[in-house]
Amino acid sequence: MFLLPDRNCDYCPRLKEFREENRIKFPDKFNAPVPSFGPENASLLIVGLAPGLRGANFTGRPFTGDYAGDLLYGTLLKYGLAKGEYKAAPNDGLELINARITNAVRCLPPENKPIGAEINNCRPFLSSEIENLKNLKVIMCLGLVSHNSVIKTLGGKLSAHKFGHNAVHDLNGMTVIDSYHCSRYNTNTGRLTTKMFEDVFDTIKTYL
Question: The pTM is what?
Answer without folding.
Answer: 0.98
